[in-house]
User: What shape does this take?
Amino acid sequence: MTVRVGWSATAPEFAEAAKVSLRNAQLRRNLRNATDTIRAKRARVVNEMPDWEALRQAASDIKAHTLQHLDRYLLQFEENVIRAGGHVHWARDADEANQTITKLLQGYAAKELIKVKAMTTDEIQLNRALEAHGILPFETDLAELILQLSEDKPSHIVVPALHKNRYEIREIFIEKMRLASLGEEPNDLADAARLFLRKKFLSVKMGLSGANFAVAENGALVVVESEGNGRMCLTLPDVLISVVGIEKVIPTFQDLEVFLQLLPRSATGERMNPYTSIWTGVTANDGPQEFHVVLLDNGRTHVLADSVGKQALHCIRCAACLNACPVYRQTGGHAYGSAYQGPIGAIITPQLQSLHHGESLPYASSLCGACYDACPVKINIPEVLVHLRGEVVREKQSHMSGRLNAENVSMQIMAKIFASAKRFEAAQRLARMAQRPLARNGFISWLPGFLGGWTSSRDLQALPQQTFREWWKERSRKGKNHA
Amino acid sequence: MRISLFITCYNDTLFPQTGIAVVRVLERLGHTVDFPLTQTCCGQMHYNSGYQREALPMVRMFAEIFRDAEVVCIPSGSCAAMVREQYPQIASESGDQKLLAEVEALLPKVYEFAELLVKKLGVEDVGAVYPHRVTYHSSCHSLRGLRLGDIPLRLLRKVRDLELVELPDSDQCCGFGGTFAVKNAETSTAMLSEKLENIAKTKAQVCTAGDNSCLMHIFGGLHRQHAPTTTVHIAEILASTANDERTTP
Assistant: This one.
């Protein structure tokens, strides 16, 4: 089994990738404006809720309960989908999911399909797999369409083209839709996309979606969206395939009451999202007459086995943590090198992939905790980040080159120093001597090696002549009044 | 009251004036301060960097040193949050039931400095005088870890001659984050730049906080930019009186 999350296998590590966006002043302005706007909208509709904390707790409890009994709820969901006339396929990893979907489409002799925005398909890189078999997927979400036309990657879970401004989008549309002219107002751009997509909605017979929720008790799937493109893709085609992560299942229809209050408020700052589509299997003469669900594992059962990390599976993909994150605000989403960006991406990607290609992500955080506060399902992201750092370190310490790594050696020395006050005092005296060649007028502006990361942009106060404990001892010797 | 001081390793080494100020304030309020010389570090740097195994002996040391304390005062939001949030987890994961019991018995007696003054000692006016324009940075672990809310602001509002100006986006991280500042130096610097822009808007002479690690980071940026604002730990402001020599903050 090979778990793959988007293109993370080929992505550079976070600090390196972040440099690209940090040097793009326009991108950083776009990011600040966009995240400020969404955060302000979210704050308005969250603060008006008297029972927000109770809702968060309820959501967290429902998710924890479901994960505890995931086997049972998944089988119940499968049984109910089949009973309602649908087909259920199980996929262990990205390759298996892609093969299943390709075979299904080939069975229907499909050459094209229309897609609702679906995180799982970014995760398994479905479009690329289909194109390799000569099948053309058309993204119908406006932002996904922009990215597909410009061969770009998503940078935000809910607003995937957040890094592009409207002038850039206009250029893409003119070139790729072969338009003679196009205005630059948002309405002009939306009109162009609408005309372009309308033809696809009416002609393509295959639809593909993900799902926000999968209801075990009746086999219903739920898609929450804003543009109505989802409603088109879910109702117009003859055949519908939905790729759903196994953690999306919830026990009962009534549980939606909790999540449908939390999700739109957290994601787009709306009390209710414009389109919520709920369907169960197949209904004669109404909507797609063939319906398939692909239940995707791709590392999720591995995450479930980790008592601290499994809370990441609570995620409802609202992206409130991205909008709240001061790191994401500066770097944008591409630095995370994954279909999942921001704080949640920093814990999901490395966990799904058992750390492979994701070792730098748990460190892409100052542990400020803003993500935890924003999370509608109470995922303690800082806790998981620190837990994953522990795994990275343990892996490093399991081989000789990792043990000799400068960071590990420094940490071991520091641990020895902190183990005894005598050693600590000696180290304080030694540091005071060692800094002499570096300190000028009480400040240090240059440090060697990896510590240079600090002094490249910040000065450091030199160590004072007396430590606190030296002052305390002196005062105890001379008596309080001499202090 | 007999108050045991856990100074924290970086205050001890880099910011002794903060510790001296804590002692001054607490003694001025009529309390006795005790400083056990066997203390070193809370283990936060190791723990947060992924060296959890290495942090365990520091948890043991802390529990041992302060076992019989009446109250423990920590003049650092992040170290206090480390003790309160992580110690029970570390002790529990170690499988050492005795340590866990000790930590759980100790925790209700552990306070961050501002929290100690307001919540435990019931004081907001500590008799300080500080004739400067001051802005307050919330510090993530004081705000979201310890949930101090407006406790530090209540203390600052009672300081005579102090002009308190609100820091825009005070709750945003300054970008320090321990080893994050070095591992992701460029991102950390970008976060700091935004903090410095907001500080400049306040035209404050002093940016204060309950955590010298944030202040060291903010000061590092201010000093590099030759900015007119400096940083001072809240304890030093609260320790100031009319008798202090006063030139620049």
In short: The longest strand of chain A covers residues 239-245. Chain A has three domains: 8-301, 400-428, 435-483. DSSP finds 23 helices and 13 strands in chain A.
